[in-house]
Design a protein that fits this description.
elongated, 2 domains, alpha+beta, single chain, Elongation Factor Tu (Ef-tu), domain 3, Threonyl-tRNA Synthetase, Chain A, domain 2, 3 helices, six-stranded antiparallel β-barrel, 219 residues, binds zinc ion
């Protein structure tokens, strides 16, 4: 797929993470690999799972970030061609759960930092079932979880604005901001903490001196 670096792709999931479908022109096609000019379909990045959905009615098998663009591998070769306008549609139920769980992970991260002083993550991941943050921690995190869960749910019971925006110096880098908290993050997020709803926190030991906090949605 030559020439792929010569144009930019508009990532609509950043401007409007609530957009469930969009008709875009196809910029490149190579068998069942396609690159649209604009997209609402998130590809795995920063620990956040890819969306599920269809392009031109054909299920997407895989979405891959490549040089700032996203290439989609379709389940079969489409009949549409470069230059055609095609509908890109995502599984909204899955996406919205990912958005809620992703912002929830940021909030729990900052609450954990405020409680323990620890800010270094050794891993993190978000899919539609759960999000998780991993730490090097000398003991079980079980003791701090009830307090963290209560504080997190207090945040999620109120309408606190969540903002995401490009970094002034490097627009490909983005920021997540809520209340006094700010992080670099290129994921998709709800507009308010009230959309997250009630969560549950669970501890998992993932090896000697390594602790995981798992976050799941109550509904
Ligand atoms: Zn994030």
């Amino acid at each position: 797929m030559e020439g792929i670096k010569t144009y930019s792709m508009k990532k609509l999931f950043w401007e409007n993470p609530y957009l469930r479908e969009y008709v875009s022109k196809i910029a490149k096609k190579d068998g069942n690999r396609i690159v649209p000019e604009q997209t609402v379909f998130f590809a795995f990045s920063g620990g956040q799972a890819s969306d599920s959905g269809t392009i031109g009615g054909i299920p997407v098998k895989e979405a891959v970030n490549k040089n700032g663009k996203i290439e989609y591998l379709l389940e079969k070769e489409p009949e549409f061609d470069e230059g055609n306008e095609v509908k890109i549609k995502i599984d909204w139920e899955k996406r919205f759960r990912i958005m809620r769980l992703h912002s929830a992970a940021h909030v729990v991260y900052f609450l954990f930092k405020e409680k323990t002083g620890i800010e270094k993550l050794i891993g993190s991941n978000v899919d539609e079932q759960k999000s998780r943050i991993d730490y090097e921690y000398p003991e079980s995190v079980k003791g701090v979880l009830p307090e963290l869960e209560e504080k997190a749910n207090a945040v999620f019971s109120q309408d606190n604005e969540i903002k995401t925006y490009p970094d002034a110096e490097n627009p490909e880098k983005r920021l997540w901001e809520c209340m006094a908290w700010k992080s670099f993050c290129g994921g998709t997020h709800p507009k308010s903490t009230i959309e997250i709803g009630k969560v549950r926190l669970k501890r998992k030991n993932i090896g000697s001196g390594k602790e995981r906090i798992e976050i799941t949605l109550e509904s």
